[in-house]
Design a protein that fits this description.
The chain is an alpha/beta fold and 409 residues long. The protein folds into three domains: 2-106 and 255-318, FAD/NAD(P)-binding domain, CATH 3.50.50.60; 111-251, FAD/NAD(P)-binding domain (3-Layer(bba) Sandwich), CATH 3.50.50; 331-390, no CATH class. 23% of the residues lie in helices and 27% in strands. It has helices at 11-23, 132-144, 164-178, 200-212, 256-260, 300-318, 373-390; strands at 2-7, 29-35, 39-41, 60-62, 71-75, 78-82, 87-90, 95-97, 100-103, 107-109, 126-127, 148-154, 185-190, 216-218, 223-227, 232-235, 240-242, 245-249, 252-254, 285-287, 331-338, 341-347, 356-360, 364-368. The strands form eight sheets. It has a five-stranded parallel beta sheet with strand order 5-2-1-9-20, with helices on one face. The protein has a five-stranded parallel beta sheet with strand order 11-18-12-13-14. The longest helix has 19 residues, at 300-318.
Amino acid sequence: MKKLLILGAGTGGTIMANKMRALLERDEWDITIVDQFRTHYYQPGFLFIPFGMYKKDDVVKPKTSFLPVGVNIIFQEIDRIDGMNNHVLLKDGISLNYDFLIIATGTRVVPEETPGMKGPLWHKQVFDFYTIEGALALADFFKTWPGGELVLNIADMPIKCPVAPLEFVMFADAFFVERGLRNKVNITYVTPMSGAFTKPRASKVLGNLLAEKNINILSDFYLERVDNVKKVLVSYDEKEVPFDCLVTIPVHKGDPLIGRSGLGDEMDFVKAHKHTLQSDHFPNIFVIGDAGNFPTSKAGSVVHFQADVLTENLMCAIENRPLTDAYDGHSNCYIETGFGKGALIDFNYDTEPLPGSFPFPGIGPFGLLKETRMNHYGKLMFRWIYWHILLKGKEMPIDSKMTMAGKKM
């Protein structure tokens, strides 16, 4: 019996477990997935929690609900990968052998990497919304906050869902307008990037949106520490930004097991080929999603598009054929802009976000690089799609490769 081992039962690992169980003969292939946590979070929903649009129950389900029959599930912390000997050692001492390995261990926020971030004000006046705990704490805080300096800060890049910080400040603008408090809330978007987003064309459009909403942008700010006494952010060049409420996007890192296994970069993201998704170290190890050091967004759409490529290339490797598929860096993101509207961007390694219609040329129904109500509805509909279609590895009417159809140069 040959063995396929998947590390991580988040979005990427769950999709691949479903896809590979459907393709590999059960009497020939044993498939096992390992994760230390039993709960699956719909992470895009964390954005809605501080503003009272979602509750915890809307974003939480058991991981076992989405894994297919015929896949072994082990809930245990992983110690390390021994790629030379094709086995994975768990924290309890159990060793799991494999013929092929998929690493889908994701990324994690590490606020403790920034001095002062997890100080006395943590989850009192300093919050994150990239964890369920932070999002819920911020929701409680906003219920009674009278206003003041609301600062959103990105500590460093890369981060999960690079548009989420932009969505947050635009949601905050609408939230406080609707409550009659906007004139008492000064919103500042503080980023280490040179603009609102990583891609220049989208950065200009999104930067203009922030300006229209009277949201300040402070770019090229490299956070060194959070001063809990003075309530200021301090950069490496000693610039200070005062806050009454700080919403931070902490430093992100890969799983520590990647570093212990010698497979990652300095941030514990797995070194892998950006097109084939194959590990730089071992040909029978593949990587998907946030776990990899791919030069693209760490977003759910990336996992979705990579899954098609990985399925094809893994089957090629299993059948001892050359890898025939290539991931092009395709990513798309709905961007909530407040007041029941949203934007949408679609891009890849080589092509910036462009205006147009998506996914069908001239029809849409979604508009690229513009605010529409349909884009907002698309964002809301995606939660159902995520739970019922995406995680189960079912086909969706969007090609894994980015297409220029419907886009305007």
